[in-house]
Specification:
Growth Hormone, Chain: A; 465 residues; 0% strand; mainly alpha; disordered N terminus; single chain; 2 domains
Length: 465
């Protein structure tokens, strides 16, 4: 979890193989482009998979979670902070609509590098805008972070493309755990270390503007380092054999996949499941952290950014990852159909924890940290159910990847819409009544879980519909 890459071996296998090839070529060094792909440094996925997915996770959490806390610290009310930080994830929700454009490129690496280098400039510009921002002059920051969301979503498309076209099926399965862990290292870094740093810099400088400017500079420096690193070691990413050959072919393939999605048996129930399974947590995602740092006079827990970074970012994310692993093991042993209702209950444990917080207003740091770790653990277990259901029941068919992406977009749409209205609802109801409402929002989640159709054998879900 966020640990440095293992040291490179003194004589990696590809280097020995390269020397053998060069000896057959008369002993003269060969340029990298002339070597077989398996002899190049990026043939070792450990050199580029962790850093690629760290970059993806870092940008996503910047425009969603980090922006939410930053807006609150800069004096914005809950309604606006939650609205804008939710709106910034719109590109991640609708990215399937421009994914075919990335497929038309000669190499996906070009898209990855272009997005990462431009993101560095956008983040630096955001830092400069934050330095002089007031709650009334946030428009430039909204525009810059909105653009960062678009570029971040495009980076995701291209990076996933590099992953699936560079690695064979066996290696894709082998490194999927590392991929997920390194994506989550982004939230650990941003929600944990950088949120804590923002509080420390505010204490030393006396200014939230200066503090967040420093945080954004750190993120820009990290992204710049990753971009330079990827310029040398990220594979180019090949075109798949069914890659569209032009605009017409691309559009035809997209609309055929889109149309076939809605021809699936019981697709309405599947759509409702994908949208509503995380319904309650959608309201909680933005307001939970804001509640934790809000003053006790306003009904919050009064935590500092340092405490929030440790509790929510480090302990919480670690518990989430453990829960996700155990959730996967649980489903593998019991089967999804037998596990889904229990996973739904696990998913809604955070609703109970935050209602308890609003009623008891605990001040004990160990108690708050323990409760947050518990809710993140059960959230991690529960959310596995949605991912596996989308893979096994919604995705199967000719356009498996596209259909999984459409289902993911529905899931993201729920998180965006509920997040956008959560701040306004909290200001209208107050924290206590808001969290009662969040608990009641678990009802649609339970209902769609009970009604979720199962048309594919879990051990044979690769078959076409």
């Amino acid at each position: 979890m966020g640990s440095p890459l293992p040291p490179l071996p003194r004589t990696p296998a590809w280097a020995s193989e390269r020397r053998m090839v060069e000896q057959h070529a008369g002993g003269h060094p060969l340029p990298m482009s002339k070597l077989p792909a398996s002899f190049r440094p990026y043939a070792l996925p450990l050199w580029w998979v962790p850093t690629s997915y760290l970059a993806m996770g870092l940008i996503y959490v910047l425009v969603s979670g980090v922006a939410n806390i930053m807006f609150k610290n800069l004096g914005m009310d809950n309604a606006k902070a939650a609205f804008w930080s939710s709106l910034f994830i719109l590109p991640y929700t609708i990215k399937p609509f421009w994914a075919p454009l990335v497929e038309l490129g000669k190499t996906k690496k070009v898209f990855v590098l272009a997005m990462q280098f431009i993101l560095v400039g956008l983040i630096v510009a955001t830092a400069l805008a934050v330095r002089i921002a007031t709650p009334e002059t946030m428009t430039p920051i909204f525009v810059l972070l909105g653009l960062a969301g678009i570029l971040g979503a495009t980076q995701d498309i291209a990076t996933d493309g590099v992953y699936v076209t560079t690695l064979g099926r066996a290696d894709q399965a082998k490194y999927i755990g590392l991929q997920s862990m390194c994506w989550n290292a982004g939230p650990i870094l941003a929600n944990g270390i950088l949120i804590r740093a923002s509080g420390m810099w505010q204490t030393s400088t006396g200014s939230w503007n200066t503090s967040w400017m420093y945080v954004l500079y750190v993120i820009a420096a990290l992204m710049g380092t990753l971009a330079v690193y990827h310029a040398y070691l990220l594979p180019p990413g090949a075109s798949t054999i069914d890659t569209p050959q032009g605009w017409k072919d691309s559009l035809h393939t997209f609309f055929e996949a889109f149309h076939s999605f809605f021809r699936k048996k019981d697709i309405v129930l599947m759509i409702l499941f994908a949208f509503f399974f995380r319904f309650g947590y959608g309201f909680l995602e933005k307001m939970g952290p804001l509640f934790m740092i809000d003053s006790r006079e306003n009904g919050g827990l009064g935590l500092t950014n340092q405490a929030l970074g440790d509790i929510n970012g480090t302990f919480g994310t670690g518990a989430f990852m453990i829960g996700s692993i155990l959730g996967g093991i649980f489903v593998a042993r019991r089967g999804l159909k037998q596990s889904l209702f229990l996973l739904c209950l696990c998913l809604n444990v955070p609703n109970v924890i935050f209602l308890f917080f609003s009623l008891a207003c605990p001040s004990s740091y160990p108690l708050i940290a323990t409760c947050v770790s518990i809710e993140k653990f059960f959230w991690g277990m529960g959310v596995v159910g949605l991912s596996i259901y989308m893979m096994q029941q919604i995705a199967p068919g000719k356009y498996r990847t596209a259909h999984y992406t459409f289902a993911s977009a529905l899931m993201g749409l729920n998180m965006m819409l509920t997040g956008m209205v959560s701040g306004k609802l909290q200001e209208w109801l107050g924290y206590r009544n808001f969290f009662i409402g969040v608990l009641l929002a678990a009802i649609p989640s339970v209902l769609v879980t009970l009604a979720a159709p199962f048309h594919h054998n879990e051990s044979n879900s690769q078959e076409n519909t």
